[in-house]
Amino acid sequence: MTVNLSVKSVPDHVADRLRRRAARNHRSLQGELLSILTEAARAEGALSPAELLDWVRRTGLETPAGSADTIRADRDAH
User: Fold this and answer.
1) Are 29 and 18 in contact (CB under 8 A)?
2) Which among 18, 26, 44, 47 could bridge 51 via Cys, Cβ 3.0 to 4.6 Å?
3) With b meaning 16 or more CB within 10 Å and e meaning fewer, what string describes 3-34?
4) Dist CA 58 CA 52 (whole Å)
5) Global pTM value
């Protein structure tokens, strides 16, 4: 069973940012809102390796070759 939700009186600047976010993620506004709600409703806990990999790919993060040195230097500084 599904439920229809409605959000009223969304400020223009918020709606614009959501539209841009949806476009970056190649989704409709409705799809982006559903994705945001799904993430928010997800049970707390660690991501599975597959979920983490999917998240990294979606965000476009890259790991530079020297990341281990960067992490080590940061850790040693504290």
Assistant:
1) yes
2) 47
3) eeeeeeeeeeeeeeeeeeebeeeeeeeeebbe
4) 10
5) 0.53
Phi-psi region of 50 (alpha: psi -120 to 50; beta: other; left: phi over 0): alpha
**Contact assessment for residue 7 and residue 18, using Cβ atoms and an 8 Å cutoff:** no
- For residues 74 and 76, give the distance between their C-alpha atoms in angstroms, rounded to a whole number: 6
- The model's pLDDT over 30-62, given as tens digits with 9 standing for 90+, comes to 999 999 988 888 766 677 888 888 887 887 666
The angle formed by the CA atoms of residues 20, 22 and 28, to the nearest 5 degrees, is: 125
Residue entry with tokens 């049970």 = 43
